[in-house]
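Hey, sorry for the delay on this. The queue was backed up all week. Below are the sequences that define the complex (chains, strands and the ligand SMILES where applicable).
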Amino acid sequence: MLLSRKLTDNISSKWMVTCLTFCLLLPLAIGTGLVFKSTPLLSEHRLSELVFSKDWFPSDNRFGFWSFIVSSVWVTVLSLIISIPLCLLSAIYLTQYAPKWFLKFMRPVIDILAGIPSVVYGVWGLLIVVPLVGDKIAPFFGKESLGYSLLAGAIVLAVMSIPYILNMLLEVFRQMPVELGEASLALGATKWETIKHSFLRKGSTGIISAFGLGFSKALGETIAVLMVVGNVVQIPKSMFDSGYTLPGLIANNYGEMMSIPSYDSALMFGALLLFVIIVIINVIFRYIIYKSEAL
Amino acid sequence: MSTQIETLLKSNLTTTVVHNNIPVVEIDKVNVYSKGHHILKNVSTIIPKNKITVLLGPSGCGKTTLLKCLNRLTDLYPDLKVSGSIRIDGDNIFDAHKDITAIRQKMGLLLQRPYPLPMSIYDNIAYGLKLKGIRNKKIISAKVEKHLKEVALWDEVKDRLKTSAQRLSIGQQQRLCLARGLAVEPEIILADEPSSALDPISSRVIEEEFIKLKSGYTIILVTHILRQAKRLADNVIFMYYGEIIESGPAQQVFENPQSEILKEYLRVGH
Ligand SMILES: Nc1ncnc2c1ncn2[C@@H]1O[C@H](COP(=O)(O)OP(=O)(O)OP(=O)(O)O)[C@@H](O)[C@H]1O
Ligand SMILES: [Mg+2]
């Protein structure tokens, strides 16, 4: 009896270590694979040129990724600017002000939103968001736009990432200890002051993680963005211009134009860039979390 | 019940004559329900000024709930239905037009377990001051120092005021929470078993604090430690299953308990 329990204990802990190792090795493996695949390109071009040049002429063997990087980051940041306040306020409202049944009712709604395939969001973006940006929002700001724009991409992305970010934020606020609320209110804070000064600080780690995950997810989103950003290789001058994101570049062109040498390798380098950006962003978010935990 | 209130009122009248103390808190027919469960049953009592009133009673009898009624922290629990009136300096705190934040600032609260706000030691005390609208850094710093000294914590933390309050020991945290409560200059201190999580020495520090504070504050203290109650109490309220069974001056209650339950409680508690 004792032996078998010990054995189970042993096996299960080994099994967990194996799973964990796998999880840790996977990104490493992907990273190495990408580096390996992009070496042909890297051996021909200087890294700084690949990253910072905006000249994208594959048939001339010129591969500058700067436009794609700028578009990707721009769309992602813009989408977070839209989704962060929405999610934060919704999470606060749902957990602190709304009646309990409402939160219970919203949970499955949020889960359904999360489960909708991104193509569907893309179609919705094409039919609703693109015309909205082209005909209403851009003229409102005195700009001209076809509608296929970074802003359209950002709106679609924001809507897509809301369920993810919101779910995480709901957990953060639901786990807020009652004693903290009591302590703050007892000192004469209003409910809003308590949320603003105590809850947000107490939950800062979770909140920042939620946004970090939202960022990574938004940066990597492909289809829905690809359908609405216009896919024009250029450095966008405003959010009403078209752009071309890194995931869009890869998805649109992988397996095509094999006649151009290094093209395949260039796409892999694009994937590597995406990977590196995500790593950098995660490191930055970790650092912010570390700083906020120090207090 | 009514005779109890009468005797209570009488006893209070006599103390009024002797010590010239007006009641600060008048609790009148307070009932608390939670989904059909009757937590506080027609609780009426008077809490005299500048005295330590000790709330005694077995676990679950409603002591914490009564404290939470006093500064309306019951608002936090939508399940709780509160009725009756509680007058503090004559104002009914359940009055809808009353500014609840101002009422709460009349009271400092110490919880069973200390709960520092998730910020630095300094900011824990500055928090209430800033809520009061005090912005001047010099005034805030001076008050932080004053109240930390008041609870004998200053020397231990003066070199790390900007570090997280959560890293203090539990005893230090409890004193910080007391200082934080005192900083908003309350009239009343509500303390819910403030030394239950503390070692004997730290809890002595808190006790001594209370005795010192008595001249300036009205203190309502919940405790399970009978000896602590005897050391501190001027006035005792004994509760059982949501009701006030007996109350009055400490000496009278401890030396001449009327009800069987209280006699039993005092006997077992020894
Ligand atoms: N928010 C609440 N919702 C429902 N019931 C509650 C709530 N708070 C307290 N109660 C109930 O009210 C009763 C009194 O609880 P209370 O915490 O006031 O007891 P207490 O006298 O402080 O006990 P202890 O000495 O153990 O701290 C208990 O039966 C408890 O279950
Ligand atoms: Mg209690």
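The pocket of magnesium ion (ligand 2) is lined by residues B 63-64, 192 (CB under 6 Å).

I'll add it to the shared folder too.

S.
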